[in-house]
Amino acid sequence: MAKKVKKGQSEFSRFLYQLSKNKMAMIGLAIIVLEIIVAIIAPWIAPYGYQEIDTTALRQAPSAAHWFGTDEIGRDIFSRVLIGTRYSLSMGILATLISAAIGIVIGAIAGFAGGWADNIIMRFLDVIQSLPGMLLVIVMSAVLGSGYFNTILALSVGSIPASARMLRANMLRQRKAEYIEAAYSINCSAPRIIFRHLVPNSISANIVQMTMGVSHVIVQAASLSFIGLGIQPPIPDWGAMLSGARAFIRKSPHMVIFPGLAIAVTVLAVNMLGDGVRDAMDPKLKK
Amino acid sequence: MPRSYLEIENLKVEYFSSKETVHAVNGVNLRMHKGKTLGLVGETGAGKTTIAKSILRILPDVGSRIVEGSIYVEGNDLLKLKEADMRKIRGNDISMIFQDPMTALNPVQRVGEQISEAVKLHSDMTKEQCDARAKEMLKMVGITEDRFSEYPHQFSGGMKQRIVIAIALACNPKILLADEPTTALDVTIQAQVLDLVAELQKKFNTSMLLITHDLGVVAQVCDEVAIIYAGQIVEYGTKEQIFHHPSHPYTIGLFGAIPDMAGDDEWLHPIEGLPPDPTKPIVGCPFAPRCKFASEKCFKETPPTLKTPDGHESTCHNMDLVVKEGK
Amino acid sequence: MSEMVRVEGLKKYFPTARGLLHAVDDVTMTIEKGHTVGIVGESGCGKSTLGRTIIHLLEKTDGKIFLEGKDVSDVKGKDLAKVREQMQIIFQDPYSSIDPKKSIRDTVKEPLYVSRRYTKAEIEEKTDELMDLVGIDERLKYAYPHELDGGRRQRVGIARALALDPKFVVCDEPVSALDVSIQAQVLNLLKKLQQDRNLTYMFVTHDMSVVRHISDEICVMYLGQVVEKCPSKELFRKPLHPYTKALLSAIPSTDIDNPTKREILQGELTSPINPKPGCRFAARCPFATEACHQPQVQQEVEKGHFVRCCRVKEVN
Questions:
Q1: Nearest to C142 among A6, A184, A189 (CB)
Q2: Which of B112, B258, B314, C6 is placed for a possible disulfide with C66 were both Cys, Cβ 3.0 to 4.6 Å?
Q3: Do C181 and B271 touch (CB under 8 A)?
Q4: Is the ipTM of this complex over 0.95?
Q5: A-C interface: how many C-beta pairs under 8 angstroms?
Q6: CA A214, CA A90: separation in Å to the nearest integer?
Q7: Count of structural domains, chain C
Q8: Which residue of chain A has the CA closest to B20?
Q9: Would you state the pLDDT for residue A186?
Q10: Are C57 and A183 in contact (CB under 8 A)?
Q11: Structural domain contains residue B1
Q12: Which residue of A has its CA nearest to B63?
C-alpha cells in the first residue's frame, strides 16, 4: 500500500493562510478588489459620462439625480469618481511595480557584484535619494511631460533607490549563508545562485515595501495633478478633481469631500493590507 | 515533612498561540538542597529552560501560562507572590545565567556598570560602593579591575560568560539558575568556567540548578541529577546513583548513545525515533513509542514514580524489568 | 595509489583591517582512500577553513592540493567543476545549509540538474534513491525545511552531498547542532554510507568523543597549524603535544569514579592576525622556552605519529 505523500506546505501558502486570518488585512484587500472591479466596469456603471455636462445643474449638492453632486461645469461627480478609480489605482500599482522591478535588479547586481560596481551604483542611488521626494517627482514630471504613462514613470523614479537598497541589504546578509556556499559547491552558476537562491530569499522585505509604497504613490499622483502636472483635465483623476474644487470649497464642499474621501479610503485599504502582509511574513509568528 | 530548599510541585506550563498550544512542562516535581548542585539533563524542547524561567517568573507575558503547580523556596510559594515582591527576589535571592554570552550582555553599556547596576538595584549602597563591589566581582571571576570600563565586544566568549557570572553572583544569591552556561564555549574555556562556578558556589554556599544536555558536565559539577523528557522528570537521584545505576529506559538510552571514550564499538546505539509532538497532549508515558521495554500499560496509563533498589526515583511502569535487564 | 587527498604547504590567509589573518598556515597532510581523518581544534584553529579550501570553496593563498595523485591546485572553469563533483561537503548547521524556500526534494535534485548529465527521468529516479538512502520517509518527499527537525534536515544535506557520487567528503561538524540521541543516528548513517560507497571523509569537529569514535587518524589544529597527527586511538592513549594533552584533559568525562586530572590552560587564545613566528601555543604553554619562538618543524616522533613541538621529548 503506497503511503500518502504529503504535499509540502510552502512558505508562500503558509503566508497566504496567515494573511487570510487577519481581519483588517482582508477588509483592506476586499476594498481594493472592489475598486479594481469598479475601475474595470466604470464606464458601464457610471450614470453619466465623465465629460457629460449639464449646464442646468452647476455645483449642485448631492441629490437623487446626482449622488455626489455636480462640479462647477455641471459634470456628475459620482461618475467622475468612479471613472477616476482607473487612473489613481492603476498609477499607484504600476508605478510601484516598475520601481520595485528596476530596484530589485539594480540591488541584486550591486549586492552580488560588490567592489567598485556596487560602489558606483550606490553613489548613483545616493544622488537620486538626496533630492526631496516630491521635488524629484515634480521635476521628472515636468521633464517627461504630462499624460498617463509619463506620470507613471515620473512617479516610479523616486522609489527606485529605496527598493534597491532593501534588496541589496538583504542579499548581503543571505550571501554569507551556508546554503549559498552549498550552491557553489554543487557547481551552480552565478546567475542561478542570484535568481534561484539569493533573490527569492531576499525579496520578502521588498514585498512589504511595495504594498506600503502603493499608497505613497497614490498620494504623490494626487499631489501632482493638484498642482497641475501629471494627469491633465478633463480626465477625472481624483487629485485633479481636488485641485479644480479648491476655489469652491466654502460654498460647495461636496466637490472636495468625495474625491478626497476616495483617496483616503484607497490609501487606508492599501495600508491595512500592507500591515497584514508584513505581519504575515514576520518570522516571530512562525511556529 | 519539611520541604527541601527549593521544591517544585506538579508544575505545568504551556505556550499558546491562536493556532496551537505547546505543553512545555507537564507535571514536574523537583527538589534541590541547600548548597548543592542539581543537574537538570534533557534534550532540546524537553522543558528545561521553561522550568528555570518559571522559577524566576520571567516567562513571556503574552503566549505563556503557568497552568498549575507550586514553586517553594524556603517554604514560600513563589508563584503566589506579587510582582513587586518577585522583583526583590530576582537578581538578589535568585539569579540566572543564560546560555548565550554573546547576547546576554548589553552591548552599549560598560561591563563594570552592568555589574554595579545589579548591585544598586538590590541594595542601598552608594554608587561608589556598588562600583567597588563590581570590581571585586571582576577580580573574583578572573578579570583584571582595569577592564571595568570596557565594552562587551572587547571581550572573548569565555570572558563574557565570566562577566555574566559576575553579574549573577554580585548580590550573593541563594539560588543560581545556570542555563547551559558553557555550551557555546570551547572545551578548554568550558573547563575554566566550570571550575570557576564550582569554586564560587562553594565559597558562597549557593545552591545551583545546572541545566545541560552534556552528561560529562554533569559528572564534573553536579551533586544530584534529574533527567527530563517531554516536560516530565523521568529519573532523579544523586550523581552516583544515576551514573552507576541508571534505571529509566531514556536515561539508559542517553548513556548508550554517547560515544564511549573507553570502548571500541563500531556502531553507536542511538535512541530510535523522535521526541513526541509537544502540541499534542500525552497519554501514558511520553517515552513509550521509543522504549524497548514498553508494554500496553505504558501507552495508556501515566507511569508512577517508584523507588529503585538503590534508593533513587524512576518514573516507569516496568522499572523492575528495566533494572534487571540493565542496558 | 592509496592516497585520496594530499595537501602540501597549504595556506589560506584573509586580509582584514587589522592585518593578515593566518587562518590556515602551512598545512601538509595525506588522507588515504577509504579513511576518515578527524580534524579537531577549538574556535579559530582553522579547521573549517582547511576543509573549504581543500574542496576549492575558498581560494587558497598558497600551497598544493592533490586529488588521487593529480595536481588540482589551480584548476579553473570546467576542470574545477569536475573536481568539485569529486569533493563535496556536508555543513554544520541544518537550519541554514538548505535553501528555506525550496522543497527538500528540489534541494537534493539540484546538483543532478546543474551537472547536466542526466535526463529528467533519471534525475527523478536518482533523487528518490538518494532520499531513500539517507532514510527520509517517502511521505516527506515534498516537505519544506521548516517542517522538519534538525536531524532530518541534516540527512537532506547528506543526500545533496552524495548526489554527484563524490569520492571525498568534508564533514564540517555535521552533528554538532543535533541532540545527543539524533547525533548517534546520523553518525551511524555516515559510517554506513562510507562503507557502502567507499567514501573518504575529512571529519571536522570540536567534540573529542565523536572524533575518537569515527576517525582512523586525527589531526589536532591550533591557530591554523597542525600540531599533532596520529592514529585515532593513539592520540588518546599517548598524546605528545602540550596542547593536545590540555585539550584532552579539559573534556569532562562521564566516568565519575576516575575524574581526569585537568591541566587548566591559563589565558586566552592569541590572535591569528599577523602572528609572530614560532609556536603559537607558546604563550599558554607551561613548558615554553626560548627555543619555542623559532619556527617549529613537524617531526615524525614515532611511526605515523607527527608532532610540531621542539620540546616534545622533555614534555613527555
A1: A6
A2: C6
A3: yes
A4: no
A5: 85
A6: 10
A7: 1
A8: A287
A9: 93
A10: no
A11: no
A12: A285
